[in-house]
């Protein structure tokens, strides 16, 4: 049981590494959006900035789809509702298991206000970002801020689970 809890901590640390990369990309996108929202640059310059934004959005999806622990993809939304269950006690009771849910960190979900499967076709998340015009850039700032809130919420949840698992390990090793 102690090993299972330790493995869960390691898994959550792997997920945290992926979320740090996503955070870094979102912060860079926000910087570019702020630049593009200003009249001090031309539409041509905005086009160049938009090219970088597009690449960063692609990188966020790559990280969400490839962050793994022991072959298990962690950030792609697979465990958003079902979660990953860890046996942390010697008995076969609900008290001896912990289930960790991990949100979907793909760009179609990050920063969106339209939640749920019915609205998947009308996403207003990070996947829709553009800084090709001043208005688009201003909208992008709001979307990225929501996405950063989503990531921070996910990181807080995983941090709380990590603390619980570390507590389990300490308790079992007494």
Q: What do these coordinates show?
A:
The protein has 174 residues and is mainly alpha-helical. It contains 3 helices and 4 strands. It has helices spanning 2-36, 43-66, 134-172; strands spanning 68-69, 72-73, 84-87, 97-100. The protein has a two-stranded antiparallel ribbon with strand order 1-2. Strands 3-4 form a two-stranded antiparallel ribbon. The protein is elongated and about 65 Å long.
Rg, rounded, reads 19 Å
Head-to-tail CA distance between termini: 13 Å
Largest sheet geometry: 2 strands, antiparallel
Helix/strand/pairing class, anyone? mainly alpha
In a few lines, what is going on in this structure?
The protein is mainly alpha-helical and 174 residues long.
